[in-house]
Amino acid sequence: MTQAIKVAVLIGSPRQGSLSERLAAALAALAPPELELRVVPIKDLPLFNPDLDRKDLPPVPAWKEFRDSVRSSDALLFITPEYNRSVPAILKNALEVGSRPYTRQAFSGKPAAIVTQSTGMLGGFGANHHLRQILVFLNAHVLAQPEIYLSQADKLFDAEGALAEGPGKELLTAFLAQFHAFILRHPAPGA
């Protein structure tokens, strides 16, 4: 039996029970058995500060744990809302933490995919594209298609909070199949 592909899920919303958090749970439930989606917490990461990230100092424990979790994953899945036409501060901070030390940054060579969402009509378009720019610089291999911008994402869930049957669920199921195929074509170094 082949070992499941470990996908680190980074959620860009700090809010308990957010749409991004609900989408992460829904995607984990929809994922094919070959993909093991696990959330890597970023809400409580201390703000990145280069003064604290020097060779002559012990590593900040939360930063080390985060970096190790990302490094040990085979792929990355970002699920985020859009704040001010960009990525939320907690997600940008996680990207800063994971990108250091630059010679051993945690994202390099990893296949990645992005799901953005909003309750409005744009579906997090700005955040999606800003995140793509950052990930390209960090040498992650970002899934180009399908691009997932979920507008009116609150309507994807039924009254009990489960992902409703319909086009949204079909889109996310197809997205996961495409992401799985992409990971197989672009494995992370050492995977």
List the helices and strands and how they pair.
Blueprint: E1 5-11, H1 19-30, E2 35-39, H2 61-71, E3 75-80, H3 89-98, E4 111-117, H4 125-137, E5 141-142, E6 148-150, H5 167-185
Parallel strand pairs: 1-2, 1-3, 3-4, 4-5, 4-6
Could you walk me through the main structural features you see in this protein, from its secondary elements to its overall organization?
- With 191 residues, the protein is an alpha/beta fold.
- The protein contains five helices and six strands, in the order E-H-E-H-E-H-E-H-E-E-H.
- Strands 1, 2, 3, 4, 5 and 6 form a six-stranded parallel sheet that branches.
- Helix 3 (89-98) links the parallel strand 3 (75-80) and strand 4 (111-117).
Descriptive tags:
alpha/beta, Rossmann fold, 5 helices, 16% strand, globular
Q: State the separation between the terminal residues, measured CA to CA.
A: 16 Å
CATH-defined architecture: 3-Layer(aba) Sandwich
CATH superfamily: Flavodoxin domain
Total beta-strand segments:
6
Tally of distinct domains: 1
- Helical/strand content category: alpha/beta
Number of helices: 5
* H/E element order: EHEHEHEHEEH
Shape: globular
Low-confidence stretches: none
CATH class: Alpha Beta
**What is the alpha-carbon Rg in Å?**
16 Å
Described by strand count, sense and barrel closure, the largest sheet is:
6 strands, parallel
User: Average pLDDT value?
Assistant: 94
- Provide the CATH topology: Rossmann fold
**Helix content bin:** 25-40%
Strand content: 15-25%
